[in-house]
Amino acid sequence: MPEFTPFLKSLLAAPGLSGYETPVARLIEAEWRPLVDEISRSRLGSLQALKKGRDGQGDRPSIMIATHMDAIGLMVTQIVDGLLHITEIGGIDARVLPGAPVTVYGTAAGQTEELFGVIVQPPARTLPASLGDGPIGLNYLLVDIGLTHKQALQKVQVGDLVSFAAGPVELAGDVISGHSLDNRVSVAALTVALQELQDKFHAWDVWAVATAQEEETLGGAFTSAFGLHPDLAIAIDVTFAKGPGANDWQTFPLGKGPTLAFGPNIHPFLHKKLKELADRLEIPYAVEVLPRHSGTDTYAMQVAAEGIPTAVIGIPLRYMHTPVEVVAYKDIQRAGRLTAEFIAALEPDFIEKITWDENP
Amino acid sequence: MPTITNTQLKLLEKLCNAIAVSGDEGEVRQIVLEEVKPYADEVKIDALGSVLVTKAGAKRSRSEKRLRVMLDAHMDEVGFMLVADDGDGIFRFEPVGGLDVRQLVGKPVLVGRGKIPGVIGARPIHLTTPEERQKKIPLDQLRIDIGPGGKAKVGERAGFATTFRRVGQSIFSKAIDNRIGCAILIELLKNAPPNIDLCLSFSVQEEIGLRGAKVAAHAFHPDLAIAVDSTPANDLPMHNGSENISYNTKLGLGPAIYTVDVGTLSDPRLVRLLTETGDAEDIPYQFRQPGGGGTDAAAIHKSLAGIPSVSVSVPGRYAHTSTLVCRVDDWKNTLALLQAALGRITPDLLAGKR
Question: Do A90 and A24 share a structural domain?
Answer without folding.
Answer: no
